[in-house]
Design goal:
Number of strands: 11
Distance between the termini: 40 Å
Number of helices: 0
Order of helices and strands: EEEEEEEEEEE
Strand content: over 45%
Structural class: mainly beta
Length: about 120
């Protein structure tokens, strides 16, 4: 059974940093494009960042460019999201996503940024 398990969320003040991790129980992890999405209360889930499976090409939402960094460690089947200079509008549940022939989602981890 495929599982994506996020960790690293929490409460942080404006300007602070957090690093999210997503451990994936995927046999062919390196074949998947990995991504992070988020959903704030009352809003739709939105794309945050992704990293391709082969050469690690990254993509970011405009709202997080220059502040967030996505990376992956194929040897550990883990994808990371380093979040710096956090803002209150970054408050959301953050979900890990794996895409190949199918799409998998994690259960989410809460990130709260206080002003």
């Amino acid at each position: 059974q495929v599982q994506l398990v996020e960790s690293g969320g929490g409460l942080v003040q404006t300007g602070g940093s957090l690093k999210l991790s997503c451990a994936a129980s995927l046999r062919t992890f390196s074949s998947y494009t990995m991504g992070w999405f988020r959903q704030a209360p009352g809003k739709e889930r939105e794309f945050v960042a992704s990293i391709s499976w082969r050469v690690g090409i990254t993509s970011y939402a405009d709202s997080v460019k220059g502040r967030f960094t996505i990376s992956r460690d194929n040897a550990k089947n883990t994808v990371y999201l380093q979040m710096d200079n956090l803002k209150p509008e970054d408050t959301a549940v953050y979900y890990c996503n794996a895409q190949y022939t199918v799409v998998y989602w994690g259960q989410g981890t809460q990130v709260t940024v206080s002003s």
